[in-house]
Amino acid sequence: MKIVISADMEGTTGVVEGIHVRPPDQANPAGSSAAEYGWARLTMTREVNAAIEGALEAGAEQVIVNESHDGMRNLLPEELHREALLISGVHKPLSMAQGVDEPGVAGLIYTGYHAKAGTPNGVLAHTYVGFIRDVRLNGVSVGEYGINAAVAGHFGVPVIMVTGDDHTVRQTQELLGERVVGVIVKRGIGTNSAIHLHPAKARDLIREGAAEAVRRIPELKPYNPGWPCRVEVDVDHQVQADLATIVPGVARNGERGFVFTAEDGVQLVTIWRAVLNAMMTRFAV
Q1: Are 271 and 245 in contact (CB under 8 A)?
Q2: Which residues contact 112 (CB under 8 A, 6 or more apart)?
């Protein structure tokens, strides 16, 4: 039995500001700090290790960690649990859900996840990029937790656990079911403020939660949003919708939105990656 961990960063205990989660080489000098980022990536890695330990204790034969935060090279490989495999780097076919297509994968764990765009008091809440206001799968508003669950579900893999702030855990369980193990490492009191557990206490709970999540696998079901799936996206500015429609099959939807239809989870993530890259193009012809 294999377990995949999709490791994001904003939901890590102690993390509340962009300066914690932006690699210094990808931010302007005023918006970066090697010291703050270095601390946060170590804390992120230690939380992932706790999830790995719990999964192995409960009987997982292999754990694959898919780096899923900005740039997808934030985890510290030398500090990662030596029994885990690490997937890192960008332009992965399944993006944040890479690895769920491996033979024998029985469950997907989210660590360091955050709430969807627009969530009041959700710490660093967003959906992939800052200019996306909402994503709806067949009319259901979701965040990254929903999109990645749909991709995993395509391969018959259920989400079994999520760690992050209280809003993230609530939203994930509302969509995927209360039996998905939720580990709250901080309580959001604003976009950039939270009440945190001590990192050691958070790791203890994550390890215990991962073990319980693996034991619950027989009762958890893969997420199916319904196929074909109508995907509606609202953005901040009409130019982003204009750029998205460069992708074949994507059409405008209102003044600041676009829509496309995905036949399955692979097509969903493929078109999604294409529109994100199109919208983030600085120079277009």
Answers
A1: no
A2: 7, 8, 9, 10, 11, 12, 15, 44, 47, 48, 69, 163, 164
- pLDDT reported for residue 284: 57
Residues of the chain with confidence (pLDDT) below 50: none
Beta bridge partners of 142: 135
Which residues are tagged catalytic?
126
**pLDDT recorded at residue 158:** 98
The pLDDT, as a whole number, for residue 4 is 98
Query: Phi first, then psi: what are they for 225, rounded to 5°?
Result: -75, -10
pLDDT computed for residue 96 by the predictor: 98
**Residue 204 in tokens:** 């203890």
Q: How far apart are the first and last CA of the chain?
A: 48
Among residues 195, 213, 274, which one has the least CA distance to residue 50? 213
**Buried (b) or exposed (e) across 22-50, using 16+ Cβ within 10 A?**
bebeebeeeebbeebbeebbebbbbbbbb
Q: Supply the pLDDT for residue 38.
A: 94
Task: Answer yes or no: are the C-beta atoms of 209 and 25 closer than 8 Å.
Answer: no
Output the six-digit token pair for 213.
């999540």
Q: 79-104 burial, b for 16+ CB within 10 Å, e for fewer?
A: ebbeebebbbeeebebbbbbbbbeee
Show the DSSP H helices in the chain as ranges. Answer: 18-21, 34-57, 144-154, 166-176, 199-215, 238-244, 265-279
List the one residue out of 227, 283, 279, 277 whose CA is nearest residue 258.
Answer: 279
What gap in Å lies between CA 137 and CA 131, rounded to an integer?
A: 18
* Residue 113 and residue 59 in contact, taking contact as beta carbons nearer than 8 Å: no
The pLDDT value recorded for residue 283 is 60
- Strand order in 2-7's β-sheet? 85-87, 62-67, 2-7, 105-113, 159-165, 181-190, 193-196
